[in-house]
Write a structure and sequence with these properties.
Oligomer: single chain
Radius of gyration: 52 Å
Strand content: 5-15%
Structural class: alpha/beta
Number of helices: 21
Strand order of the largest sheet: 9-8-10-11-12-15-16-17
CATH topology of the largest domain: Rhopdopsin 7-helix transmembrane proteins
CATH class of the largest domain: Mainly Alpha
Number of strands: 26
Shape: rod-shaped
Distance between the termini: 134 Å
Number of domains: 4
Largest sheet: 8 strands, mixed
C-alpha cells in the first residue's frame, strides 16, 4: 500500500506492501499459501479489513486539526503477492519512482515515498528490509515477527507494530507453569522461522523446568508422507498439551486428520494466529480444538471503525476493485464485469444489498486483529511527520540544532523521528519503539470455545503486558476458560505426579527431569512444598515429624526430679541414706559394747558416714546437668567410694594384724591401734584425690547437648572430658575392691572371735559384681537411662557393703543383747564362737 502525504494538494506517498496476513507474530511464512492474497481469484476478508484499517486511519488523521496541519495524507497499494521478487520489485519501484525500477536511482526526487508500511510476512519483509536499510528508508511492518529482524546491524531502518521479543516465549512458559503443565509436545514448521521459534521455546522450557516429550517438524510439502507418524505420535503421547508454531495452511492437513480420527483430550497451545483461521472454523474441528489457548496480537479497539466498515459500498467508489471483490465475497454474488472464475454463482450484485444484515467476524470490533497494527503504524508515521513539520531551527535533533527540510527531507531524517515517536493510541495505551524497533510486548490470551448454541467463539481469558512489573504482567482468568470436552477443571499434563510435602524429586537415569521419582526425606529433613527438589535440614534443636513436612522442637531429655524415673530414685536415695545414718546412731549409742568396739569402732563410724554420703551423692546425678554438677558428679562419687573401700580394706588389714598380734613375740603388735588404718584410709583417698584433681585440671567434665544418640531428642548430659581419667578413677576403685576381697577371702577362716573377714568377703563380692556389671550396662545406654544405671550401681554396691558388714552387728545389738558381751565373745557363753 502506498500512503500519500500531500502539501498544497500535491501528494507525497508512503507505501504499504500487501500480501498475506502473518499467522501470529510474523509466523507462518509460506510462499505456497495464497489464502489471503489480494488478487481477484483468492480475495479474503482479513486482508481487506487491514486495508480498510489504513484507509480509516488516514481519513481520521486528515480530519484531525492537531496533526499535520495543512498537510494531507494519501496512500497507494502495491500487492507483493506473497513473493520475494514482487516485494523487491515494488520496493525498488517506490524508491526509484518508476515502474521499471533502476536501483540506486530516483527519477522523481520531488515526489518520493516517505515511509513503507509492510510487509506482513517475515519472509517477505526481510529482503525488503535489507534493501531499504541501505538507504535508511523507514519501514514499519504490521505483522512480521521474526526474531532475526531485531538485528539492527542487518536491518537498521526496520520497525514494527507487532511485538516480537523473547518475552513472549517466556510468558508462554510461565503460562504453562501456572497451569502446572511440565510435560508437553512441540510441533513446528520445517522452515527457518519455525525452527528459530521452536529453538527459542525449547531454551525457555529448559530454563523453566518444562520437558518436551516429542518435537516434530511439519513438512512444507508432502505432508501426507509424514501424516500417519504425526497422528500416531500425538495420539499415543502422554503429554496432553501440544504447542504449535505453524501457519494455518501447513497445519490444516494434520488437524483435519486428527479431527477425522476423533482425537480429543489434547490442549493445543498456539504462539501464532492459526486458531482463528477460517480453515478451522468448520464444525468438524469444534470438539478437537475446543480449549485451545494462544497468544494473539493485542486486539485494541478502533473507535468508529465498525461504522466505517458498514459504510463500505462499491457504488461510492466504483474504481476500487477490492471493494467490488469484497461485495462478491460477502453476498455471494457477481458483478456483470467480474473476472472471477466461480461459475456456480449466478446471483448478480446490485450494490444495494443490506450490509448491516451481515453477521460475520469482519464487522466485529473485537476481531480487528492486524488491522489495529496497521492503524497504529499509520499513526506512528503521521506523528513522526508531524514532528518533522513542527521542528524549530536551532532546537532540532540534527547537527547544530538543524531540522529536516520539510520540502524534501532525507529518509534517515524521517527515520530518526519515527524511531523516537511516542504517543497514546485510541485505547489510551502508550505506543513507542524500543531499541530494536519493537513496540511494547502486549498480547491477548484467547480461548477457542464452542458456544452453547453450537457456534464458534474466541474468548479473551488473559493478557500479557510487558509494561507492567513482573508478576503483574501476565494475567490469566482460569474461570473463563472452557477446556476440551467442555470441562471447567484444568487438565493435567505431567510426566510424573507432583511430589507431596515430605518428599523430594529425584531424577531417573535416562529420563527427562520431569519424569522423576518421589523419595521421602530422611530423618531430620523436611520438604514443606510440592515438588521440592531438595529436603531442608531442620535446625539444631528441631527434628522432622512423621510426615517429614514440618520441623518440630526436639524433646529435651535428662533425669529430672519430676521424671517418672527420677522421682522414685530421689525417694530411694533419701530413704537409703537414713539406714546408715540410723545404724551410725545405734553404733554411737552402743559404742562401749564389744560388738561396736571390735575391729576399730572409728573405722566403722567413718565407713557408715561414707555410706551415707555415697547414697546422697546420687542426688547430684538427678536434675539438669550444668558445669558445677558435671564436675562434682564423678569426682564426689569416686572419692566417697574410695573412702568406703579404703575403710573396708583397713578393716581387713586390722583383722589379719589382730590375729597375728596374738603371739607375744610378733612384730605386728606394734601396728595394733588406729595409726595404721587411718594411714591406709588417708593414703588411698589421697591417691584418688590426686587422680580427680588431675582430671579437673587437664580435661574437666562439662555439660553437652547430645543430638546424635536419639534423633528426636536432645539429651543434656555430662561429657566426661577425659575418658581415660574417668576409667582410671573407676579402675583405681576396682583395684582397691579386689585387694580388699582377696585379703578378706584369705583371712575368712582365721580362728579369732573378732574376725570380720567373712562379712567383708561377701560385701566385696557384691561390690565387685555390681561394678563389673555396671560397665557393659553403662556403655550400652544413653541419656537418662545411663545416669539411672550409674545411680543403681551406687545403690547396689553401697547397700551390699552396708548389709553384709553392719546388719549382722545390728541384729546382735538389738535382738541378741546377751551375745553383745565380752564373755560371750571370748567363748565363755552358750556359743563357743559366733564369728564376729
Amino acid at each position: 500500500m502506498v500512503l500519500g502525504m500531500g502539501e498544497d494538494e500535491k501528494d507525497k506517498v508512503l507505501e504499504m506492501g500487501e500480501d498475506e496476513e502473518d499467522k501470529g507474530l510474523g509466523t507462518g511464512e509460506d510462499e505456497e499459501d495464497k489464502m489471503l492474497r489480494m488478487d481477484e481469484d483468492d480475495f479474503t476478508l482479513p486482508l481487506y479489513q487491514m486495508v480498510q484499517g489504513m484507509i480509516f486511519a488516514i481519513a481520521e488523521i486528515n480530519r484531525n486539526p492537531y496533526i499535520l496541519q495543512n498537510v494531507t495524507l494519501g496512500f497507494g497499494i502495491y500487492d507483493s503477492c506473497d513473493t520475494v521478487t514482487r516485494a523487491l520489485e515494488g520496493t525498488l519501484w517506490s524508491v526509484s519512482g518508476q515502474i521499471g525500477p533502476v536501483p540506486n536511482y530516483n527519477c522523481k526526487p520531488d515526489s518520493h515515498v516517505a515511509i513503507m508500511i509492510g510487509d506482513s510476512r517475515s519472509q517477505v519483509s526481510i529482503p525488503m528490509a535489507r534493501v531499504l536499510g541501505l538507504y535508511r528508508y523507514p519501514q514499519i511492518s504490521y505483522g512480521s515477527g521474526a526474531l532475526s529482524l531485531n538485528d539492527k546491524h542487518q536491518f537498521p531502518s526496520f520497525l514494527r507494530t507487532v511485538p516480537s521479543s523473547y518475552l513472549k516465549y517466556d510468558a508462554v512458559a510461565r503460562m504453562l507453569l501456572q497451569f502446572g503443565w511440565t510435560w508437553v509436545g512441540l510441533l513446528a514448521e520445517d522452515d527457518d522461522y519455525g525452527q528459530e521459534i521452536s529453538q527459542v521455546l525449547k531454551e525457555q522450557f529448559i530454563q523453566s523446568g518444562i520437558c518436551i516429550e516429542f518435537f516434530e517438524s511439519l513438512p512444507v510439502t508432502n505432508m501426507e508422507l509424514k501424516m500417519e507418524h504425526l497422528v500416531e505420535l500425538v495420539t499415543k503421547a502422554t503429554a496432553n498439551v501440544v504447542l504449535i508454531t505453524s501457519s494455518d495452511s501447513r497445519l490444516y492437513p494434520l488437524m483435519a486428520e486428527i479431527a477425522l480420527q476423533n482425537v480429543t483430550g489434547k490442549i493445543w497451545i498456539g504462539s501464532e494466529e492459526w486458531p482463528i483461521s477460517l480453515l478451522f472454523s468448520k464444525k468438524e474441528f469444534f470438539w478437537t480444538l475446543q480449549g485451545t489457548l494462544w497468544f494473539s496480537v493485542h486486539r485494541g479497539t478502533i473507535p468508529g471503525f465498525q461504522e466505517h466498515l458498514y459504510d463500505i459500498n462499491p457504488l461510492k467508489s466504483p474504481e476500487d476493485i477490492f471493494t467490488m471483490l469484497f461485495w462478491e465475497e460477502v453476498f455471494g454474488c457477481k458483478w456483470n464485469n467480474s473476472k472471477r472464475a466461480d461459475t456456480l454463482v449466478t446471483k448478480r450484485c446490485t450494490g444495494s444489498e443490506n450490509i448491516k444484515g451481515l453477521h460475520i467476524p469482519f464487522f466485529d470490533p473485537a476481531q480487528v486483529g492486524y488491522s489495529y497494527n496497521v492503524y497504529i503504524a499509520v499513526y506512528a508515521a503521521a506523528y513522526a511527520l508531524h514532528n518533522v513539520f513542527t521542528c524549530r531551527h536551532a532546537a532540532g535533533p540534527f547537527q547544530n540544532g538543524s531540522c529536516a527540510n520539510t520540502g524534501i527531507f532525507l529518509p534517515w531524517q524521517l527515520f530518526y523521528y519515527i524511531k523516537n515517536v511516542r504517543f497514546f493510541s485510541s485505547n489510551s495505551e502508550e505506543m513507542f519503539f524500543d531499541q530494536y524497533g519493537n513496540p511494547p510486548d502486549v498480547y491477548d490470551i484467547l480461548n477457542w470455545q464452542m458456544a452453547p448454541n453450537g457456534t464458534l467463539q474466541y474468548a479473551t481469558v488473559g493478557k500479557f503486558d510487558s509494561r507492567l512489573p513482573v508478576g503483574q504482567d501476565l494475567v490469566i482468568h482460569s474461570s473463563l476458560i472452557i477446556w476440551n470436552r467442555g470441562n471447567n477443571k484444568i487438565p493435567k499434563s505431567v510426566c510424573t505426579e507432583s511430589c507431596q510435602p515430605g518428599y523430594r524429586k529425584a531424577t531417573q537415569p535416562g529420563k527427562p527431569v520431569c519424569c522423576f521419582a518421589c523419595l521421602p526425606c530422611s530423618g531430620g529433613e523436611i520438604s514443606n512444598k510440592t515438588d521440592a527438589t531438595e529436603c531442608l535440614l531442620c535446625p539444631f534443636e528441631f527434628w522432622s515429624n512423621d510426615k517429614r513436612d514440618l520441623c518440630i522442637k526436639k524433646h529435651v531429655e535428662f533425669l529430672s526430679f519430676s521424671d517418672i524415673l527420677g522421682a522414685p530414685l530421689s525417694i530411694v536415695t533419701a530413704f537409703s541414706s537414713l539406714i546408715p545414718a540410723a545404724i551410725l546412731i545405734i553404733f554411737i549409742r552402743y559404742r562401749e559394747t564389744p560388738v561396736v568396739k571390735a575391729n576399730n569402732r572409728e573405722l566403722s563410724y567413718l565407713l557408715l558416714l561414707s555410706l551415707i554420703l555415697s547414697f546422697l551423692c546420687s542426688l547430684i546425678f538427678i536434675g539438669q546437668p550444668n558445669t558445677v554438677t558435671c564436675m562434682l558428679r564423678q569426682i564426689t562419687f569416686g572419692i566417697i567410694f574410695v573412702l568406703s573401700v579404703s575403710c573396708v580394706l583397713a578393716k581387713t588389714v586390722m583383722v589379719v594384724i589382730a590375729f597375728k598380734a596374738t603371739n607375744p613375740n610378733s612384730p605386728l603388735r606394734n601396728w595394733v591401734g588406729s595409726k595404721l588404718p587411718n594411714s591406709i584410709v588417708c593414703l588411698c583417698s589421697v591417691i584418688q584425690g590426686i587422680i580427680c584433681i588431675s582430671w579437673i585440671i587437664s580435661a574437666p567434665p562439662f555439660p553437652e547437648l547430645n543430638t546424635k544418640s536419639q534423633n528426636e531428642r536432645i539429651i543434656i548430659q555430662c561429657n566426661e572430658g577425659s575418658a581415660m581419667a574417668f576409667w582410671c578413677m573407676l579402675g583405681y576403685m576396682g583395684f582397691l575392691s579386689i585387694i580388699s576381697f582377696v585379703a578378706a577371702f584369705l583371712a575368712r577362716n582365721l580362728p579369732d572371735s573378732f574376725n570380720e573377714a567373712k562379712y567383708i568377703t561377701f560385701s566385696m563380692i557384691v561390690f565387685v559384681s555390681v561394678w563389673l556389671s555396671f560397665i557393659p550396662a553403662y556403655l550400652s545406654t544413653q541419656g537418662r537411662l545411663m545416669v539411672a544405671v550409674e545411680i543403681f550401681a551406687i545403690y547396689s554396691s553401697s547397700a551390699g557393703v552396708l548389709a553384709c558388714i553392719f546388719f549382722p552387728k545390728c541384729y546382735i545389738i538389738i535382738f541378741k543383747s546377751h551375745m553383745n558381751s565380752r564373755d560371750f565373745l571370748m567363748g565363755k557363753g552358750v556359743q563357743k564362737h559366733i564369728g564376729i
